[in-house]
Specification:
mainly alpha, two-stranded parallel ribbon, 5% strand, globular, ACP-like_sf, Carrier domain-containing protein, PP-bd_ACP, phosphoprotein
Amino acid sequence: MQNSQLDSIEVKQFIRELIAEIAETSAEKIKDTTPFYEELGMDSVMALEVLSSLEKKYTIRIDEEKMVEMNTIDNTYEVIKPLLSVSA
């Protein structure tokens, strides 16, 4: 794997750990399809923290309008995937 490529599993794991930290829960309890707002009690301030952390970690710019789509690990990954060089 080249340095410019990121493994999708690693990216999803980072998202999982980030969400767990922000939602103050265990990462093991968060599945790829767990709804952040309904099941984890996240709010818009927490969502901004997720967006900001992802931008900082991966040196990317995420349109704030995409936050609505970032409601599960899978959906968050799909939003940022085009901004990354990700291997399958």
